[in-house]
Design goal:
alpha/beta; 7-stranded mixed β-sheet; 5-stranded parallel β-sheet; 12 strands
Length: 435
């Protein structure tokens, strides 16, 4: 809309609305930074966990059923004169409706997520993420951005604290469980009951060392064969990368697609290494799914299932990595491993990833252009990534300050990293992505 260009940019005329953030004090600290700069700040809470993170002046609650949310947020945006919307992830039921209403009114939208560059970075993009990202997917445009921004300091910062990764999650979700009567109609965006997930997670954690020892032996045996191998990292069933940014209803369908293609097209001596996600607590019986496919396709000796360990330990010597759209693809390319992304991931760019069909990847994988990859990393670091982390105390402070500065000076997706339409969307829709 033309109204977007007419929105006030000076702080005193900007009114921010925050919706759900990460399970961290980040959004409250970011709001404090914006208030100190002279902006007006509002926040809507949807559940007791939200209230725990941020309550008091400028906050309100939505406690009605979700079908009442679109009209509620439309009225709120109008009444409060909102100029800027900030939210974590763009596919949650409340966030999707809010973005739709914001777009009708030309309101700027800022979306946060964990960093594409792990760790010590956070993602901050205008309008949308992943398939809906406005970051260019053209190599020449990316090189031009990299030339403009110059060198970037990628030195590791803000090491992850396991306590800050686990404890806030547990507190948030248990608060929602025990105080559900306060927000009786809240719909969480996760798939599984939190208490059951924590019980399963505790059991998985208790078996981690044993599983990791077994994985090390499996990797040693794999390398001893001297056979070429491909890596296929699994993603979480509840990940919006699967639920919203792909046409698949379950990751079981993705596994079947990859294994079937491997059976038909991969060289007879090659092996496929399927690895579980480190945060998978076992709701899905992936070993059974893989075992059935091994039997069906007579691949008993050619598929290795790893239930633990580090993905990076597999990169040295790998012939390629196949992924739905995981950021593991970036890590693999940094190690020089060819990558095939089944969906148009943020990094799925000609010259970086294999652009042909999956069937041809097994025999002729296209290696990443490391020069273009370097330019891509520089370009995203300068435009849609900020230094900081929600899993490190100093990192939270840094993220809040860095995000505030970028939002206030309207430098998110700048210089030159904002396409008029999401450049990945047409290809994604052609593949059946329901966006």
């Amino acid at each position: 809309m033309s109204g977007r260009a007419e929105l006030p940019a000076d702080a005193s005329r900007r009114t921010f609305l925050f919706l759900q953030g990460p399970l961290s004090p980040l959004y409250k600290k970011l709001g404090t930074e914006l208030l100190a700069a002279g902006c007006r700040v509002r926040r809507i809470n949807f559940c007791s966990g939200d209230w725990l993170h941020w309550h008091g002046a400028g906050t309100s609650s939505f406690k009605n059923k979700t079908d009442a949310w679109p009209s509620h947020i439309a009225g709120f945006l109008e009444r409060e004169g909102i100029t800027d919307l900030v939210l974590h992830g763009d596919q949650r039921i409340y966030h999707k409706a809010a973005i739709t209403e914001a777009n009708k009114r030309g309101i700027r939208v800022f979306v946060t997520e964990l960093g594409l560059l792990r760790s010590g970075w956070m993602t901050l993009e205008r309008e949308g993420l992943a398939t809906l990202s406005r970051f260019p997917n053209d190599g020449d445009a990316i090189r031009a951005i990299a030339n403009r921004v110059g060198d970037i300091d990628f030195a590791p910062l803000f090491p992850k604290s396991t306590a800050l990764e686990i404890v806030p999650d547990v507190i948030y979700n248990l608060t929602n469980v025990f105080l559900k009567p306060l927000y009786p109609h809240y719909q969480r965006h996760t798939l599984y009951p939190p208490v059951l997930e924590y019980l399963r997670g505790a059991w998985r954690l208790s078996t981690e060392r044993r599983r990791d020892r077994l994985v090390r032996r499996q990797i040693d045996a794999l390398r001893a064969t001297g056979n070429p191998y491909f890596i296929f990292p699994l993603q979480l069933e509840g990940d919006f990368q699967l639920r919203a940014h792909s046409p698949y209803k379950s990751f079981a369908e993705v596994i079947e697609t990859v294994v079937t293609s491997f059976a038909k097209n991969a060289p007879p001596a090659s092996q496929l290494v399927i690895k579980t996600h480190p945060l998978d607590v076992g709701f899905e019986n992936w070993p059974a799914v893989v075992a059935e496919l091994k039997t069906r396709h007579q691949l008993a000796e050619r598929i290795v299932f790893l239930d633990g360990g580090r993905l990076g330990d597999l990169f040295d010597g790998a012939s390629g990595l196949v992924t739905l759209n995981s950021t593991a693809g970036i890590e693999a390319m940094q190690a020089g491993v060819p990558v095939k992304s089944l969906m148009p991931a943020h990094y799925d760019i000609e010259g970086m990833t294999h652009q042909g069909d999956l069937s041809g990847f097994w025999t002729s994988p296209e290696r990443p252009d490391l020069g273009l990859l370097t330019d891509y990393l520089r370009a995203i670091a300068a435009t849609v990534q900020v230094r900081g982390s929600i899993h490190n105390r100093e990192g939270v402070e840094a993220a809040a300050k860095n995000m505030a500065q970028r939002i206030l000076d309207l430098s998110v997706n700048e210089p030159g990293a904002f396409s008029p339409v999401p450049p990945r969307l047409e290809k994604a829709r052609a593949l059946g992505v329901p966006l």
